[in-house]
Design goal:
The protein is mainly α and about 70 residues long. The N and C termini lie far apart (about 65 Å). The relative contact order is 0.07.
């Protein structure tokens, strides 16, 4: 992140100010310190919900299979 802004600023020849660099540095540090753990937490919740969905599908399949077997008897 700290290299991307100065290298990108070379394309604008004079339009790159120190305040812009400080803004990107601040946002980059904010991402690394506060937003990234929240993003990882959200990813963890998504994985758990995906596992629950698969478990629900498996239970529904087993119940349908058991109902089909009991109907044959």
């Amino acid at each position: 992140m700290s290299l991307m802004v100065p290298v990108g600023g070379m394309f604008f020849l004079g339009f790159f100010a120190a305040s812009v660099f400080l803004l990107f540095a601040f946002v980059g540090s904010l991402y690394l310190t506060e937003l990234r753990p929240l993003q990882e937490l959200g990813s963890g919740f998504a994985e758990v919900l995906n596992g629950l969905r698969k478990a629900k599908e498996l239970l529904a399949y087993l119940l349908l299979r058991a109902a089909a077997l009991s109907a044959k008897l």
